[in-house]
Amino acid sequence: MKITKKVPKFMMVLAASAMILSACGKSDKEAASTVKETKTLNLLTWEGYADPEFTKAFSEKYGVKVNATYFGSSDELLAKLKSGGGDTYDIISPSSDVASMLIDSGLVEEIDTEKIDSFGDLNERLRSLQDVQKDGKTYGMPFTWGPDYLIYDADVIKEEPTSWSTFWDPKYKGKVSVWDDISNIYLVGQIMGLDKKDESAIYNMSEEQLQEAKKKLLELKPNIRKYWATAGELNDLFANKEVVMAVGWPLTVEAVNAKGRNLKWTIPQEGATGWIDRLMIVKGAKNKANAEKYLNYISTPEAQAKVAKVTTYGIANPKAAEFMDQNLQEQTYVNNMDDMFSKLNFWQPVKERNRYNEIWTEIKTQ
User: Fold this and answer.
1) Which of 131, 133, 162, 339 is deepest in the core (most CB within 10 A)?
2) CA separation for the pair 65, 335 (Å, rounded)
3) What is the pLDDT of residue 163?
4) CA neighbours within 13 Å on the CB side: how many for 362?
5) E-only strand ranges, 148-252
6) How far apart are CA 171 and CA 174, in angstroms?
């Protein structure tokens, strides 16, 4: 009897233990599942391209946490992407000078444009550019675009500069800033008039032309206060009255003037370069489904209007004008994109990019 009484107790203990173990096992699986199913989206992008003003609505709609890593130049993007790839990033925002390189290197995924409801509404010229097309496939969605302006402090420089050559005027010694980037070589190519007949010429300069550009940029060094690395750094240089003119983007004019300054911009007679930033999905992205949802969301008119409000850059969807006030429409050329396009030489792939970088490094270190 004692035995028969003890057996049920023993069995009850075993059963209870089994239930506990089963519950623990289930809990572990649920925890693992929860970790696995945590919704995230990792962006490797330019400053301003992951602002809560426009990412918040996406996060709330899909329950996805948006994480952002920023880069300050196309070459920094390439370096970060090659070191991290799809294990680290899901979406990148390359400019038009490196987009085709990313495709040829197999670093990005094909984009299924059928999953982007507003794709057909995007500006035709922007969405049909061939640098993101290969073998009939599309690898990039246009996001923003804009000019490399000559920005100046109108409280100091009373008359609008008409030429980039004003950067070299001795009276502005230590008062000029240019971006820490090879695009300065493009700029000097424009000053040299190389792109008058062939826009691609400044992106494919001969060694002799590169040496001439190098000489010109070395002559500029006495006037350089600092080579700015980020838009925020340039904003501070103007806000603190350390510089009176620079190469910069629309975001700087808006941000600094909001603090009471009087910056203005111009496109000099030699012209100006411009950039088109795409959104691309990284090859092997761990959160590809979320990346596709984001492309669909961020291309809508309302989301694009929010992007324009934050950055004051041109955006890809002209229907965004419905959600923008008149001033913002004028700032971003949303109703007349083609007119501004005609004034800019948009960045193109640089075949000898390593050589351009070598020249730029030599300029900075001499």
Assistant:
1) 131
2) 33
3) 98
4) 14
5) 149-153, 176-179, 224-228, 245-248
6) 9
CB contact set of 228 (below 8 Å; sequence gap of 6+): 177, 178, 179, 180, 234, 237, 246, 248
First to last CA, the chain: 99
Residue 8 has pLDDT above 60, yes or no: no
Sign of CA dihedral 282, 288, 292, 293: negative
Separation between Cα atoms, residue 47 and residue 229, nearest integer Å: 11
The residues, ordered by sequence, that sit 6+ positions from 356 with a Cβ below 8 Å of its Cβ are 182, 185, 205, 210, 350
Which of the 8 DSSP states describes residue 154?
T
DSSP element (H, E) containing 265: strand 263-266
33 pLDDT above the threshold of 50: no
List Cα–Cα distances, 233 to 156, 178, 327, in angstroms: 20, 11, 26
What span, in angstroms and rounded, lies between the C-alpha atoms of 207 and 184? 16
Q: 275, 250, 247: which is closest to 331 by C-alpha?
A: 250
Q: What would you report as the CA-atom Rg of the chain, rounded to the nearest whole angstrom?
A: 26
Amino acid at 177: S
DSSP string, 47-76: TTTT-HHHHHHHHHHHT-EEEEEE-SSHHH
Mean pLDDT over all residues of the chain?
91
- Residue type at position 342: S
Residue 260: count other Cβ atoms within 10 Å of its Cβ.
7
Sign of CA dihedral 159, 165, 168, 169: negative
SS3 content of the chain, % helix, strand, coil (to 5): 50, 15, 30
d(CA 114, CA 287): 19
Q: Which two tokens stand for residue 321?
A: 């004008």
pTM of the model: 0.85
